[in-house]
């Protein structure tokens, strides 16, 4: 008996995913809840386990193929009618049974191309870079742990469009499209890049935003960082949570109910923070950040940052935000007017911290100065509330010990 497993419901309103890499090839034997493919959604790259056991007879799509929810993914022959007792067979993208999760953690991330037999390890970023440059990864020696092929390996390899690999056919040359002489390349947006584009455009269409900003003396904040042994992002996050407690109008969102607009106030703070990764900009969320101490918040920010860099964030960790913190100062810029992260109502931006002349008690001194900006949805509050929020944040940055009086 043959059974065809289809791409399951992805949740979060997602309707499609891109096949990143197959973990199996046609003819391989698989067990219940074995991970068979990595797919990339608009939220994250996740592993998909198969609920059937048997021999793989067909892989429905090569890496790079977009697959709709409900479309065939893999066909297995000799599949049992019911899942084995060691696994539930309940499959949801990004999750699995306890046994399957343990197997996935212990299994090496060897990626096998559809129809091929040579193992290799590739991240989505490296895979796309190799495809765009026409580099045959089968002839590369990875410089990463256990021979993992890294981005630098692909960048250092010569384009293989005109060369023939000794182990196979010539590498596919970079596909180019030249509608006009001035166009260098064209690239269809998929996954996270497409999600960022669509969400940014929606924010601009629906949210009448405004931005206010202020220069602040961050010398006290830098001293607090050294004294407490936590990162600036954690301190700024703790200050933001305290400010939202005083100005709950900004911990809100606007929803459409037919022709009506409904203002929704949130009972807890889902603190999102912008994180730049190789796959693009993502915004992990610290859920119920208002219930965490500064040390607990610092630990959670570190954990989510590491998961973001590894491309291991789950859909749950990327949703549920009510307010976003963007430390664009790490890019060496002083200020910005960022786009509100829809459907949130506000975003706090922090510029770089640099030495500048500053008047302290009537005397000119050199201080650590930064610029704070608040972009907010003008439908949820007016300038008075926004200005009060930003002034409170600025006061806490300049005198962080004063925040302890409110805790």
TrEMBL record:
GO terms for molecular function: acetyltransferase activity; lipoic acid binding. Its EC number is 2.3.1.-. SUPFAM superfamilies: CoA-dependent acyltransferases, Peripheral subunit-binding domain of 2-oxo acid dehydrogenase complex, Single hybrid motif. Residues 2-77 form the Lipoyl-binding domain. It is an enzyme of class 2 (transferase). Residues 121-158 form the Peripheral subunit-binding (PSBD) domain. One of its GO terms (cellular component) is cytoplasm. Belongs to the 2-oxoacid dehydrogenase family. This is Dihydrolipoamide acetyltransferase component of pyruvate dehydrogenase complex.
């Amino acid at each position: 008996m043959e059974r065809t497993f289809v791409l399951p419901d992805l949740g979060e309103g997602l309707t499609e995913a891109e096949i990143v890499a197959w973990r199996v090839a046609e003819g391989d034997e698989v067990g219940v809840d074995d991970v068979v493919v990595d797919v990339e959604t608009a939220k994250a790259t996740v592993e998909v386990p198969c609920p059937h056991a048997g021999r793989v007879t067909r892989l429905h799509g090569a890496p790079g193929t977009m697959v709709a929810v409900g479309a065939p993914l893999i066909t297995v022959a000799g599949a049992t009618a019911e899942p084995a007792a060691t696994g539930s067979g309940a499959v949801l993208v990004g999750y699995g049974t306890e046994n399957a999760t343990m197997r996935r953690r212990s299994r090496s991330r060897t990626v096998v191309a559809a129809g091929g037999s040579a193992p290799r390890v590739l991240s989505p970023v490296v895979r796309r870079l190799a495809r765009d440059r026409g580099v045959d990864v089968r002839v590369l020696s990875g410089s990463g742990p256990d021979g993992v092929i890294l981005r630098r390996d692909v960048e250092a390899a010569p384009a293989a469009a005109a060369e023939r690999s000794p182990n196979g056919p010539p590498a596919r040359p970079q596909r180019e499209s030249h509608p006009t002489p001035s166009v260098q390349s064209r690239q269809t947006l998929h996954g996270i890049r497409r999600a960022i584009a669509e969400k940014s455009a929606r924010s601009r269409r629906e949210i009448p935003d405004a931005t206010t900003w202020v220069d602040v003396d961050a010398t006290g904040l830098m001293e607090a960082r050294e004294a407490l042994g936590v990162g600036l992002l954690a301190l700024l996050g703790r200050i933001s949570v305290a400010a939202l407690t005083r100005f709950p109008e900004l911990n809100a969102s606007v929803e459409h109910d037919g022709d009506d607009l409904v203002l929704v106030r949130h009972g807890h703070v889902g603190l999102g923070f912008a994180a730049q990764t190789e796959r693009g900009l993502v915004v992990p969320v610290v859920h119920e950040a208002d219930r965490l101490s500064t040390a607990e918040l610092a630990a959670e920010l570190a954990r989510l940052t590491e998961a973001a860099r590894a491309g291991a964030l789950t859909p749950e960790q990327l949703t549920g935000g009510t307010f976003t913190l963007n430390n664009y100062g790490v890019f060496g810029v002083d200020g910005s007017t960022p786009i509100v992260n829809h459907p949130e109502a506000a975003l706090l931006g922090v510029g770089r911290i640099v030495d500048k002349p500053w008047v302290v008690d009537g005397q000119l001194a050199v201080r650590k100065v930064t610029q704070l900006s608040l972009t907010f949805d003008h439908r949820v509050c007016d300038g008075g509330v926004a200005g009060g929020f930003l002034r409170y944040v600025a006061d806490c940055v300049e005198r962080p010990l004063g925040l302890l009086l409110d805790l």
